[in-house]
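Quick start: what a row looks like.
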Amino acid sequence: MNSRLAMGIIASAVFSRPSDKMRVVGVTGTNGKTTTAHLTAEILRRHGWKTDVYGTLSGARTTPEAPVLQEQFAQSLSTGCDAVVMEVSSHALALDRVVGTRFAVGVFTNLGRDHLDFHGTEEQYFAAKA
């Protein structure tokens, strides 16, 4: 097991697996993550779900490292959140930042040619998103 996988699993356990206790919606894609995440959160709120949004408007990185992410989930849960809608970047997926997170729903907005410098090929980019 690589250390990043282990870090995600351990971080989730340290915070008592908070994503298991609420609905987590992950939004990925080249473009539209922020808009989609905020629209989805607003729909959930209008249906009575206390919902937090994580992403580029609320943090320095689109998706933080696993220990920070699991702590954020625990904080959201402690304030009574029913759901979290979060942007999930291709870098976060490729670097195992969301390991230990239980997603109720995954949304894939689109796939463009951005980030090929990181992923190498369109096929590898798509595989990171899948």
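That is the whole record. The chain has one domain: 3-129. The mean pLDDT is 88.
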